[in-house]
Please model this.
Amino acid sequence: MVAEPFATPDATALRRAYYAEVAGRYWERSVTEAEIDQGMLDDPADGLVPPTGQFVVGRLDGRPLACGGIRLLDPATAELTRVYVDQRARGTGGGAALLAALEEAARELGATRVRLDTRSDLVEARALYARHGYREIPAYNSGPYAEHWFEKNLDGGGTAAAVSS
Model:
């Protein structure tokens, strides 16, 4: 996993694949290229650059197959976003490596905890987060697609205000 500007061809292709998958699962149908274009415009990645964020791309055998972003919500709290592992790389440890890279990027930005929100239908993502020490917490935002909120302390301590899942 390496830091990479979100607008490179590889990063853009991965962000488009991420959007196609999450929107398609939400709408329960394939999405069109026009819908992907609009989704990318509606949710720009411009906050994923230092000093307030970072975007990373992971490659398997030289092929870009994973990506994710981290951005600061406040000086101590970073948020994961656009976490995506291509189906061809699932089950290879790519998700764990991606989370580790994003957590390290958060530390480099000065964060001591990481939060994220996700949807109920993204079962695999929720399982990945739980396996890697993320605990469900009460809502910290009111995003239109947020149904579950997670947090992980980066200092090794427990997560405050955890709720049962």
Notes: The chain is about 30% helix and 30% strand. Residues 96 and 132 are 7 Å apart (CA to CA).
